[in-house]
Amino acid sequence: MSRLDRWFEGLARQSARKVSRRSWLSRFGGVLVGGATLPLLPVARAAEKHAVGEDGVQGPQGDPTRCEYWRHCAIDGFLCSCCGGSHTTCPPGTEMSPVTWIGTCRNPTDGKDYIISYNDCCGRTFCGRCMCNRNEGERPLYHWYRNNDLNWCSGAKAQTYSCSTAIVVKVAKEAQPEK
Amino acid sequence: MVPRAELAVALCFGLVAIARPAGADLPPEEVGRVMRLPETVGEHWIWVPDRLFRHSVLFDGDTGRMLGAIDVGAQISPKIPLWSRGRSEIYNVDTVYSRGHRGERKDYLVIYDSRTLDAKGDIEIPPRSMDTGTGIALVGMLDGDRFVLVLNHSPGTSVSVVDVEQRQLASEIQTQGCAGVFPAGPDRFGMLCGDGTVMTVHLTDDGRLDHLTRSERFFDPVVDPVTEKGVRDGTTWWFVSFEGMLHEIDFSGDTPAPKPAWSSFTESERRDGWRVGGAQHVAYHPGTNRLYSVVHEGGPGSHKDPGREIWVYDLPAKKKIDVFEAPNLMAAFLGPQAGFDASGVTGKVLNFLLPNLGVHSIAVTGDDAPLLFYRHADLGAVGVLDALSGEHLRDIDEAGLSGTLLVVP
Q1: Which position has the higher pLDDT, A158 or B105?
Q2: Measured distance CA(A1)–CA(B218) in Å, rounded
Q3: Phi/psi at B79 (nearest 5 deg)?
Q4: Chain B closest CA to A7's CA: distance in Å?
Q5: Beta strand spans in A40-178 (E)
Q6: Is B303 on the interface with A (CB under 8 A)?
Q7: Which of A98, A178, B142, B297 has the largest CB neighbor count within 10 A?
Q8: pLDDT value at position A38?
Q9: Which pTM does this prediction carry?
Q10: Residue A30 belongs to what domain range?
Q11: pLDDT tens readout for residues B188-221
Q12: What is the per-residue pLDDT for A30?
């Protein structure tokens, strides 16, 4: 894949929170690089995955390869589901860091808030796929366990960062402390 | 600005060209020459660190010309390069592994000659320097250029103090509960703490811990935390909270002294949804006391979102005095990839058609005719504005692929 294609992939993922990927890419993507590029984009690849959802959730919020997946409310990194692992397992050849940051995300199906542990997978360099950054309840560096900017592989044997998981710890007693 | 040496070289080439008869062969040229940086650090130079290329590139903001680069280690984000003018050296903290991305980890403070960019030595430091996606507030150099600070995470926290004069580790100070290093003199630095306070770490003459002091609690780390993206003027640091409250901290005394916070947004702006956000989203120009702040319209949890406007504040007056639009960087990034002139008609059309993704990070030079640099974390281009008028001067293209830092040497 060309550098331009890779860039478009990253751009589309990065924009996912603020604009629908379809909105501007469908309007302008063809103008730039022609229709041939579009099938390579994550929009097209992921479009058919929404029928079956994880955790009983339908649509993008039930798809662990999407930034919109409900557990990803405070994640910052490459999604292990796109990297040879899953949202609860690391890719082959990597190691899961035992220490991590957490988020509190609401499951849209049962309406409950869950504490999510975003354990990093370590020992390979950047996966480079499905970059996702959401910051609901994320806090600055001094608030360690809620900070998603840190390389949490510092708690693993191998400390190079590859991707991040999103593991349910338990039901939360309270929702995010957001204003 | 064109260095005198370059002017002289250009003039010589011009004379040779005039003197050479038409049709004569070009003279043979010497093989093996390597460029040096000018002796004086340019006022409009800017480091652009890149996470994927794993290097930090030095550009001249006046021309957009690349001047050179230093490599960085295998960490997620490069650390900020620290430039000692007095010693003509640059210090960079790198993490490396014995077999590329695996094997034994070692951390070094690498010492570069700032004129040649040759790595002329290194100092091994504890192998636990903190690594983050943004690389902000992880390293710093105290005034006097003798001590370099390195924040550690293992996952407990500490700070390594490196004596670059003696070329050795001076100490490692335990700082549980606090993070970020904010130099505030030759013998002290500040840190933000998880209990809503700020701490001053006082050092002895040889770089060891003298004593720690803590402020009163002045912010709520859960409800409205201040970000670690602070800006400095002497012994004063300003930090901005998620809700846009500006906190001024005076580190000149034994105990850090927060001053009353004030809001960077009016009630009307707040109702309209304006918020601060990005990565390195504030910058400060000491000569004019101007604070530059990247803003966007968003809700809770959008504190890392890029903004399309940069608001300018007069800090002593506690007042917004200007709003700069950050022009689209799309064409500047795409042009070299797709083979079109970003400054031509194609570039203008694309910048009009394609969405402006906004700005994550800004930096302002410290001179009397300052430049304001801006970048989006995933667009390999850097925009350059006149920091006083907001006029768009140029874009620096092919400035990498990914990163959040912009560092004025």
Answers
A1: B105
A2: 51
A3: -85, 165
A4: 8
A5: 76-78, 95-96, 102-106, 113-117, 120-122, 131-133, 161-164, 167-171
A6: yes
A7: B142
A8: 37
A9: 0.88
A10: 1-47
A11: 999 999 999 999 999 999 999 999 999 999 999 9
A12: 38
Q: Which residues of B touch A149 (CB under 8 A)?
A: 132-134
CB contacts, 8 Å: B228 with chain A: 140-142
pLDDT at B257 over 90: yes
CB-CB: which of B154, B228, B304 is closest to A141? Answer: B228
Residue B252 lies in a domain: no
Residues A25 and A74 both lie in one domain: no
Name residue, tokens 């101007």. Answer: B290
Q: pLDDT-based confidence at A177, cuts 50/70/90?
A: low
How many CA atoms does the CB half-sphere of A52 hold within 13 Å? Answer: 1
Partners of B221 on chain A (C-beta within 8 Å) are 139-140, 142-143
Token representation of residue B233: 């003027």
Q: B128-159 pLDDT, tens per residue?
A: 999 999 999 999 999 999 999 999 998 889 99
Q: How much is the pLDDT for A113?
A: 95
Do the Cβ atoms of A7 and B357 come within 8 Å? no
**Contact assignment for A177 to B192 by CB distance below 8 Å:** no
SS (H, E, C) A157-171: CCCCEEEECCEEEEE
Question: Which domain range does residue B297 map to?
Answer: 264-409
Residue B317 inside a domain? The answer is yes
**d(CA A149, nearest CA chain B) in Å:** 5
